[in-house]
Design a protein that fits this description.
binds 1-deoxynojirimycin, Immunoglobulin-like, globular, Rossmann fold, disordered N terminus, alpha/beta
Length: 761
C-alpha cells in the first residue's frame, strides 16, 4: 500500500492540492488496492475484473476518455499538435491515462501522487519511454545485437534496459522494434533486428521476455513500416498478404506469443489503409485471429495524421475510425480527448467501445501494480559496463581480413589512428540512446590509448577531417596530417562512418556511401601503402565496394554504446574473436535496394556465381539484372568472419521423407581447423523446390551459435517443424505443399552444404 504520509500539501506548478482534498474513492480502493498482483507475466487474479467493473461503473465519460489519452512531457516533435503542459490539472481531474517521456523518478512520483491522491477515482498513471538500445547503460543498437545471433544476449539487454527504466519510475517501454527491414535507405533499419523473419522473431520474443522482467513491453510498429516505398520514412506500403504473412507478421506474432503487453501501430498505410485506423489488420487479425488482449497504442500524434492521409475529414472522424479499429491509446494527438465523448453523445460510437479500451488500459495498470507500488525514487543501479562490453564484442562483424587482424604486437609498433569518429563519444551511442550520456562513452581512441600504453606501441591520432561547424582546420590540412601519420605507421586504423543522427527515425538516405570527405581521406591513405584497418561506425548497411577493394581489413562495429571503444579494441587485438554475422544484406550500390537474400527468383534469374557478374563480363543481357552493377550484394546476410577457420561436414538428415506433422532434423559436424578457439553461427536455409506460388530463393529456418575449441569438432543438430514451411493457399490459409525441398547448412546465406528432403501429404 502506498503510505499516506505525504506532506501537508503537494505543490505542482501553480496548482495546489491541499491534503484536505485527498480524494481516494473508498469503493475503488477496496476493489483495486487490495489485490495481490503477481509478477509481470503471471495471470492476473480474478479480483481484477471486479476492480475494473467498479471503476467503469463510477467513472464519468470524460475520465474514461482520459484513460485512453497519453501526453508527452516536454517538447513536441514533427507535426504533432496538442498540449505542451498543464498536465497536472488534467491529471487531477482524472483526464490523463499515461505520460510519455518523463525520465525522472522524482517527477514520476509527483505526478503519480496527483493521480493517486487527488484525482476523482485515484487511478495511477502509466509512464512510457523508449528503451530501444538501453536506458542509461547504452548497448549495441538492435541491428548490431541481432547480428550476435544470440537470443540470450538480446533478452539480457532488454532486461537491463527495463531494470534501469523501472528505477526511473517508467512502467511501459516502446520496444522492441520488430519491423523487418530490407532497405538500407530507411533510417530506422538501425532500430530493427534486420531483414530476416526467423532471426527477428527470435530476437523479438527474447526482448519481450527481457523487458517484462520489470516493465511492460511494446512490439512496434505494426505493421510493414520497414517496407516504406523508396525507403522514405513514413511513406506508403503496398504489400501482398503472402508477404505480410511470411515476412512482416512473424516477429509480431512471436511477441504476442511471448506475452507482449502492448502493440504500437505504424505510421504508414498498408494497401491503402493507414495502420492507425486499419480495422481489418488490428481488430480482425491482431485481436481476432492472434487473440491479442493487450493495449494497442497509436504512434506519436498518428491519430491526428489521419487527415493528412486523407482518410478522415476532420479530427472527429479520425477519432472514430481509430477507436473502431481498436486503437486503445492516443499518443499525443489529443484527438480522443477532444472527440470521443462527443461521438458517444451523438450516438456515433457506443460507450461500450470506449469501455472495451479502458478495460485494457486498466488491466495494464493493475499488471504494473499501480495501486500498491511505492513510487518513492530509489538510487538507480550503476552502469552495467561489463554487459555493454560483452554485447559490443558479440555484435562486431568482421567483413574483411587480409591477415592484419588480430594485431600482432610483435610486428606492429606504430599505429596511426585516423577518422572523425575515432574519438566522438556521442556517435558511439547510436540514434535512440535514451538517457545514455556521451560522458559515459569509451571511444576507440580512449580504449586504444589504454591498450598501447600496456603493449608499448606508439599511437598517433589525427581525425583527418572535421566536418563539424566551426572547425578551424582546412580539410586538406587535416587530411595531410592524417596521411603523414599513416605513412609513418605500421598500421592505420580508421574509424569512419555515420554520426548517430544519420540513422533512426526520419533519417532516410538516398546515398549509402561514406560522407565524401571521409572517402577522400581513406583514398588518400590507400596511396601510402600502409595496411588499413577500417572500423565502420554506422546504423545501416553502407555500400562501399571501393573500400572492400582497398582496405586490408574491415570491421563493422555499428553503434555499440558506452563500451564501444573497449569492445572494438578487444577484437582488434584478439582478446576476443569477432563472432557476429550480418543481420542485413550489405549492398554494392544504393540502386540495388531493397536488397535481401530471400528474394523470389523471377523467370530469368541470375543465380549463384552468375549474380556476381557484370554485364560486361557476361553479356547475356536479357536476364533480371542491372547493366551497370552486379546483382550480388557486397556481403550477404548471415556473413561474418572470425579469427579461426571452420569446416562443415557429415551432413545428415534424421529422415529425408517427412509429413507436415514432423520436424526436420539436420545433423552436421563442424570442425575448427584453425589454431585458436572459436565460435561459429551455423545456419540452416530451406527452399521449397516447386510450389503453387513462387517461393523465396532460400529462407533461414534454424541456427545455432556453436563454441568449438581449436582442432576439435562438434556435432550440431538443427530443427525445423515442417509446418513452418507452409505457404498461404488461395484462401489465405497456411498449407504445407507436398514435394521436394532443398536445404543448405552454412555460415552465411551464400552457399553451404546441400541436401534434399521430401514432404509427403
Ligand atoms: C515515434 C516513433 O515512431 C516511435 O517508435 C516511438 O515509440 C514514439 N515516437 C515515441 O518516442
Amino acid at each position: 500500500m502506498q503510505k499516506l504520509t505525504a506532506a501537508l500539501v503537494v505543490v505542482v506548478g501553480l496548482v495546489v492540492f491541499p491534503r484536505a482534498t485527498l480524494a481516494r474513492d473508498s469503493e475503488v480502493e477496496l476493489a483495486c488496492a487490495t489485490i495481490d498482483v503477481p509478477a509481470l507475466g503471471e495471470p492476473l487474479p480474478a479480483k481484477v475484473d471486479a476492480c475494473i467493473a467498479t471503476i467503469l461503473r463510477k467513472m464519468p465519460l470524460a475520465q474514461k476518455v482520459g484513460q485512453l489519452t497519453k501526453y508527452t512531457w516536454g517538447a513536441l516533435t514533427g507535426p504533432a499538435v496538442g498540449l505542451t503542459g498543464g498536465y497536472e490539472e488534467l491529471i487531477a481531474r482524472g483526464e490523463v491515462g499515461s505520460i510519455f517521456n518523463v525520465a525522472d523518478a522524482t517527477l514520476v512520483e509527483k505526478l503519480q501522487r496527483i493521480a493517486r491522491d487527488h484525482s476523482p477515482l485515484g487511478i495511477p498513471l502509466l509512464f512510457g519511454y523508449d528503451s530501444v538500445h538501453g536506458y542509461r547503460t547504452t548497448y549495441p543498437v538492435p541491428l548490431a545485437l541481432a547480428g550476435s545471433f544470440d537470443v540470450g544476449l538480446a533478452q539480457q539487454a532488454a532486461r537491463i534496459g527495463a531494470l534501469e527504466s523501472a528505477y526511473a519510475g517508467i512502467d511501459w517501454t516502446y520496444a522492441p522494434m520488430v519491423d523487418i527491414s530490407r532497405d538500407a535507405r530507411w533510417g530506422r533499419i538501425v532500430e530493427s533486428f534486420g531483414e530476416d523473419p526467423l532471426l527477428a522473431s527470435r530476437m523479438s520474443a527474447a526482448s519481450v521476455r527481457g523487458f517484462r522482467s520489470h516493465i511492460m513491453a511494446t512490439a512496434k510498429h505494426f505493421v510493414a513500416y520497414g517496407a516504406a516505398e523508396s525507403g522514405r520514412d513514413y511513406a506508403t506500403v503496398d504489400m501482398s498478404p503472402e508477404r505480410l504473412y511470411e515476412a512482416y507478421f512473424p516477429p509480431f506474432r512471436a511477441a504476442v506469443d511471448a506475452g507482449v503487453d502492448s502493440i504500437m501501430v505504424a505510421f504508414n498505410d498498408v494497401n491503402g489503409i493507414p495502420m492507425t485506423c486499419n480495422k481489418p489488420m488490428l481488430r480482425d487479425i491482431l485481436r481476432g485471429v492472434w487473440g491479442f488482449k493487450g493495449v494497442i497504442v497509436s504512434d506519436y500524434g498518428a491519430i491526428g495524421e489521419l487527415m493528412a492521409h486523407r482518410v478522415a475529414r476532420d479530427r472527429v472522424q479520425a477519432g472514430k475510425i481509430a477507436l473502431e479499429a481498436s486503437v486503445d491509446v492516443d499518443m499525443q494527438s489529443a484527438v480522443y480527448a477532444e472527440t470521443l465523448a462527443e461521438l458517444v453523445l451523438r450516438g456515433e460510437i457506443p460507450e461500450a467501445l470506449i469501455d472495451e479500451s479502458v478495460r485494457r488500459v486498466l488491466r495494464a495498470k493493475l499488471s504494473m501494480d499501480g495501486w500498491n507500488r511505492d513510487y518513492t525514487p530509489r538510487t538507480p543501479p550503476p552502469l552495467d559496463r561489463s554487459f555493454a562490453r560483452e554485447a559490443g564484442r558479440k555484435s562486431i562483424v568482421l567483413l574483411k581480413n587480409e591477415g592484419v587482424l588480430p594485431i600482432d604486437k610483435h610486428r606492429v609498433k606504430r599505429i596511426a589512428l585516423i577518422g572523425p569518429l575515432a574519438d566522438s563519444r556521442v556517435d558511439m551511442l547510436g540514434p535512440w540512446h535514451g538517457q545514455g550520456r556521451p560522458e559515459d562513452v569509451v571511444t576507440v581512441f580512449k580504449a586504444l590509448t589504454e591498450r598501447v600504453t600496456r603493449d608499448e606501441v606508439t599511437l598517433t591520432y589525427a581525425p583527418g577531417i572535421d566536418e563539424r561547424p566551426g572547425a578551424d582546420e582546412e580539410p586538406m590540412n587535416a587530411i595531410e596530417r592524417a596521411v603523414n601519420d599513416a605513412r609513418a605507421a605500421d598500421l592505420v586504423i580508421a574509424v569512419v562512418g555515420e554520426t548517430e543522427q544519420s540513422s533512426g527515425e526520419a533519417a532516410s538516405k538516398t546515398w549509402l556511401g561514406l560522407p565524401k570527405a571521409q572517402e577522400q581521406l581513406l583514398r588518400a591513405v590507400f596511396t601510402t601503402g600502409t595496411p588499413l584497418v577500417t572500423v565502420l561506425v554506422n546504423g545501416r548497411p553502407l555500400a562501399l565496394p571501393w573500400l572492400d577493394d582497398g582496405a586490408a581489413a574491415i570491421v563493422e562495429s555499428w553503434h555499440l554504446g558506452i563500451e564501444h571503444g573497449h569492445a572494438v579494441v578487444d577484437v582488434l587485438f584478439g582478446d576476443v574473436a569477432p563472432t557476429a554475422k550480418l543481420a542485413a544484406t550489405v549492398p554494392r550500390a544504393v540502386g540495388q535496394e531493397p536488397l535481401y537474400y530471400s528474394m523470389r527468383p523471377s523467370g530469368r534469374p541470375l543465380r549463384g556465381a552468375d549474380s556476381g557478374i557484370l554485364l560486361a563480363d557476361y553479356p547475356e543481357r536479357y536476364f533480371s539484372r542491372y547493366i551497370d552493377e552486379k546483382n550480388a550484394p557486397l556481403y550477404p546476410f548471415g556473413y561474418g568472419l572470425t579469427y579461426t577457420r571452420f569446416e562443415l561436414g557429415d551432413l545428415r538428415l534424421a529422415s529425408s521423407t517427412l509429413t507436415p506433422a514432423d520436424t526436420l532434423e539436420v545433423h552436421v559436424r563442424i570442425t575448427n581447423v584453425g589454431e585458436r578457439d572459436g565460435i561459429e553461427v551455423v545456419q540452416l536455409y530451406v527452399r521449397d523446390d516447386v510450389a503453387t506460388t513462387t517461393r523465396p530463393g532460400k529462407e533461414l529456418k534454424d541456427f545455432a551459435r556453436v563454441d568449438v575449441p581449436k582442432r576439435q569438432s562438434r556435432d550440431v543438430v538443427l530443427r525445423v517443424p515442417v509446418r513452418e514451411l507452409a505457404i498461404l493457399d488461395a484462401n489465405g490459409v497456411p498449407l504445407v505443399e507436398p514435394g521436394t525441398f532443398t536445404l543448405w547448412v552454412g555460415n552465411s546465406s551464400a552457399g553451404g552444404l546441400e541436401a534434399q528432403f521430401e514432404v509427403t501429404p
